[in-house]
Amino acid sequence: MEPIDLELINEVRLNLRRVSSALDEEIEADINAAYADLQRVGINIADSKKPLLVKAVKLYCRWQTNFAGLGDRYQANYESLRDSMALSAAYKETESENV
Fold first, then answer.
1. Which of 3, 56, 60, 82 could tie 34 with a disulfide, CB 3.0–4.6 Å?
2. What is the pTM of this model?
3. In whole angstroms, what is the distance from residue 99 CA to residue 4 CA?
4. pLDDT at position 3
């Protein structure tokens, strides 16, 4: 997997209302886990700037950190978005991309 774009780490950090970069390694690990889960259901993550991919990553990270004590809500929102994206042709991996 390619290194995570610093811009995305900054965006997720701000979304989690964190100012310090002290936990950036944890954020990067959560982003990688989100990407792995999205790929697991057949979502193409090659264009990581697509708005729904970014939103899914943010929801995943909020779920993993139990943001504002609402981890269960963020989990449900993430899974719903992930499953919808998996059904969308715009986000599906093609067979040639799997090779």
1. 60
2. 0.89
3. 22
4. 74
pLDDT category of residue 93 using cuts at 50, 70 and 90: confident
Structure tokens at 58: 């943010």
Radius of gyration over every alpha carbon of the chain, rounded to an integer in angstroms:
13
- Answer yes or no: are the C-beta atoms of 48 and 54 closer than 8 Å: yes
Residue 92, strand partner residues: 43
Say how many Å lie between the first and final Cα of the chain, rounded: 14
Concatenated DSSP letters of 33-59: HHHHHHHHTTB--SSTTSHHHHHHHHH
Query: Tokens 């259901």 identify what position?
Result: 41
Distances (CA, A) of 41 to 60, 82, 92: 15, 8, 9
Separate counts of helices (H) and strands (E) for the chain: 4, 0
Phi, psi of 18 (to 5 degrees): -105, 135
